[in-house]
Amino acid sequence: MKKIKIQDNIFVNPMPVVLIGSSSQRKDNFMNCAWISQVNVAPAIVSISINKNHKTAISIKETQCFSINIPTEELMEKTDYSGMVSNRRISKKELFDVFYSEEFKVPMIKECAVNIECKVVDIKEFQTNTVFFGKFINCYSEKKYLTNNKLDNNKINGFSVIMPDNIYISKGKKIGNALDENTMKKFSLLY
Ligand SMILES: Cc1cc2nc3c(=O)[nH]c(=O)nc-3n(C[C@H](O)[C@H](O)[C@H](O)COP(=O)(O)O)c2cc1C
């Protein structure tokens, strides 16, 4: 099989979709994030890559903590909206029921299946993005998402995104559009 060189700015798809929770000067915020990856087993550490201009990046630098919230399919539109508007313009916390983690009191979303409180243990700056390495401090879920006291991914119903096609998928099937104009219109009227 002959390989041919293609453009070099491609995405590694599909990418899991999470909502990153942060807070600055008592203003809670949630941002759609797909550039997230597990980087260490024990202790559990993940990396999240956030554009330097986003309010989320500025807040995490200030507080050195953040939350990872795993949305279910039912939250797809609200999650998408959180990826289209900045906390500079609107307060996105009204979209969700919020609770606070034990250690850093970082905002988390009740409707999400899994919530992880992270402490920043390292930061790497690139041209456009800041990569935060977060160590897991506390993880939360609900009985309905567990089997034998362990998280059951079949019950969680999370979803992923494919870029640059901008479609959300779950279990291999398209469930909606990312960066969707109709979602933007709908939620701009509500919030
Ligand atoms: C599906 C999807 C995934 C996204 N993933 C990221 C990401 O990984 N990193 C990032 O910096 N922005 C990402 N964004 C864009 C931000 O969520 C968006 O710019 C947001 O409005 C920033 O909010 P903030 O300024 O309140 O922090 C994503 C948007 C969507 C729709």
Secondary-structure blueprint of this entry?
Elements: E1 15-16, E2 18-24, E3 27-33, E4 36-40, E5 45-51, H1 55-63, E6 65-70, H2 76-82, E7 98-100, E8 107-109, E9 114-125, E10 129-140, E11 146-147, E12 150-151, H3 153-156, E13 160-162, E14 167-170, E15 173-177, H4 181-190
Antiparallel strand pairs: 1-13, 2-3, 2-6, 4-5, 5-10, 6-9, 7-8, 9-10, 11-12, 13-14, 14-15
This protein binds flavin mononucleotide (FMN).
CATH hierarchy, class: Mainly Beta
Q: N- to C-terminal separation?
A: 53 Å
Task: Flag low-confidence runs.
Answer: none
Percent of sequence in beta strands = 35-45%
Number of helices: 4
- E-strand count: 15
- Percentage of residues assigned to helices: 10-25%
User: What is the mean pLDDT?
Assistant: 96
Which outline best applies? globular
Small ligands present: flavin mononucleotide
Number of domains: 1
Summarize this entry quickly:
This protein is α+β, with helices and mostly antiparallel strands and 191 residues long. The chain is 16% helix and 42% strand. A hairpin with a 2-residue loop joins strand 14 (167-170) and strand 15.
Describe this structure in words.
The protein has one domain (15-190): Electron Transport, Fmn-binding Protein, Chain A (Pnp Oxidase, Chain A). It is built from 4 helices and 15 strands. The mean pLDDT is 96. The termini are far apart. A hairpin with a 2-residue loop joins strand 14 (167-170) and strand 15. A 7-stranded antiparallel β-sheet has the order 3-2-6-9-10-5-4. It has a 4-stranded antiparallel β-sheet with strand order 1-13-14-15, with no helix packed on it. With 191 residues, the chain is an alpha+beta fold. It has helices spanning 55-63, 76-82, 153-156, 181-190; strands at residues 15-16, 18-24, 27-33, 36-40, 45-51, 65-70, 98-100, 107-109, 114-125, 129-140, 146-147, 150-151, 160-162, 167-170, 173-177. Residues 17, 29, 31-35, 49-51, 54-56, 80, 83-88, 161, 178-179 line the site of flavin mononucleotide.
